[in-house]
Queue: 4 jobs
Job 1
Amino acid sequence: MSNMTENTWGGARAGSGRKLTAPEGVPRKQHQLRASDSEWELIRQLAAIVKKNPEKVKEFLAENAL
């Protein structure tokens, strides 16, 4: 049996894992809210759009203000 310190697979590596900051360099904070399952699905889809294309969401909100 080989020594466990000789293995190069597994464990923490530089650059691996989820990025802790948004593209602007600001840390993403954790938030909580209550929502039904159907509401949560819409929130989840919108959150994905916000992360990929925030300008598109800003444009939509400007055109469709409550």
Job 2
Amino acid sequence: MGQDLAQLQDGEQQLDQEKAAIANNKTQLADEFLIKARLQTITYDETD
């Protein structure tokens, strides 16, 4: 019984770490999207 509980707790910790990594990846992707969008507006604002 104690071993099962320990395995569940380990699994829960692993899931929490994965959730944190996913949240960081989402933030990074959002930042990259904003940078690309801003660069795109600069490209369209330039006159030839």
Job 3
Amino acid sequence: MGPDSLSLQDALRVMSELNDLEALERRLRYAQRTNDVTSLDLAEIERLLGEEARWMAERMQEVARVLEDAGLIRRKGNELLLTPRAMRRVGEHALKDIFGNVDAAPAGDHTLTRRGAGLEPGDETKRFAWGDAFGLVDTSRTVMNAVLRDGATTPVRVTADDFEVRPTLALTQCSTVIMLDMSYSMMQGGRFQAGRRIAIALDSLIRSKYPKDNLYIIAFSYVVLSLKPEQLLDSYWVQYGGGTNFQQALRQARQTLARHHIGTKQIVFITDGEPTTAYSSWDDDDEAVIDPVTGLKRIPDVTEETLREVMRCTQDRITLNTFILDSHPATGDLMRNMARINRGRAFFGSAQDIGKYVLLDYVHNKKHTVG
């Protein structure tokens, strides 16, 4: 035995400590997954990781208690979950962050042409025309027109030419799927965090302003995950290896929207690149190879399969609006083809600015003039 060799007793002690560290790692990962740090053993953390680690764990437990007392988190089984009040607060902050410089952001040029449910007054008036409802007459503007014509005399004489109406705006009911790319490249440059913030803000906007709308969230890389809004604040579900599958994500989004038969349907697609993988739907596809992770048949013609799924979305009257973050110039060719097939739009922007486009575009497309 050499001078640095361990005795049997020391070796057993080291093995015991390693086992304890592995067990602690499992408990820490479980605490991360359930968002519950209150069950961590502080004495064990100090023994294995030191006083500073214990101090940090104590602070986290204290924060959890404060949040629970404030009604921002609640306990469900072994998990700590955000309350609706907390989600509203987070969403409000995300909206404020995105709309901080909203006046500088253009709203896009798309005009909705289909009618929806619900009416609200518009901001502008127009001259009364045959067929306009009398309930839409703007009394103040009508009287003002008479005064401007004859002067401030009494009684005010109102003629047919004085009448102005305030056209209403039809509010469409909209079902939306946010498709958030979580591939490896999205993890760089703050792109994924920007996409996550956009999804949280849009959820907050819909809950507060358009409660009849429906919002679904899908995250994808080589796998496709359906998420609840509150899960956007976690990271345990993020899987960014193995490729980027637009085809499967579009298919799941299309199938999700198929349950809605009224109003408009759209996919808000947030990505920074192009698809790198797709799967065959044919059992006898000789060119397909089995994906070792998913067990599905991976095929070589990724772009063609992606565009086929875009065509299926188009046939189902689903609008696809794509928001491309900090992309390579070559990415634009596929995105423009997708927009051409679907008659949707493709926006190119930075991770810092793209949120304004998404939210303003959503609000802009909610309304159109009726009458």
Job 4
Amino acid sequence: MASAARSLGTGERRAAVLREVALADLVVLGPFAVPGLAEAYLGLWFQLNGALGFAADAPLLGPTGGLLLNLLGFFAVLSALLRLRDPGGVAWPLAGMAKAVAVVLIAAGLARGAAPIFAVALVADAIACIRLALAARQS
């Protein structure tokens, strides 16, 4: 009985971590899903980049780039909402893999000269990945 209670507590802890990561994704990436807002939000990221002493001019995306930015935001929002709705099952390993891949892709982008402000996203995703792994290890 105590073992079952301990497992339930661990499952609840894993679900809580997954929900926290999903909420952070929703808040940080959600604005990219909204046409018009996405470009302004990206501009804010580049203003922060400028405040850190790097280039402050956001890239001109054009219609195709704006569409891709909105699609990125949409799929991030959809993924976050699905993880919030059902934090168990397949959501757990997929979230961990997605965060690990995001860290690699952002690192590759930074190595190719992407705006240094995206190092913030790299650190945030790395922390999320570590939190997910630690919570999984406790189970």
